[in-house]
Specification:
MTH1187/YkoF-like, 4 strands, Thiamine-binding protein, four-stranded antiparallel sheet, alpha+beta, Thiamine_BP, UPF0045_domain
Length: 97
Amino acid sequence: MKSINLGIQIVPKSKDKDSYWLVDQAIEVIKNSGVKYEVTPFETVMEGPEEELMKIAKEAQEAVLTAGAEEILVYYRMQIRKSKDVTMGEKTDSWKQ
């Protein structure tokens, strides 16, 4: 199964819960999934099979709602190749210090 990159940004809305704490609940789901991922200031990027990443993304969304968000805005960005894997490293390794 070929790998893709999926970037997910979940923006929670809550009257009484801290937004960063709510986002942390989504990141915890991604962390516990076992897929390769990288947290950035605006989104979390995952690497793996598309079906698996979409399942994880749905679980992350549900975790934020379960943790107390009244509403969430979810933004996805995906890079998919027809016949070749997509890796985070090909985009960022040359910039790592």
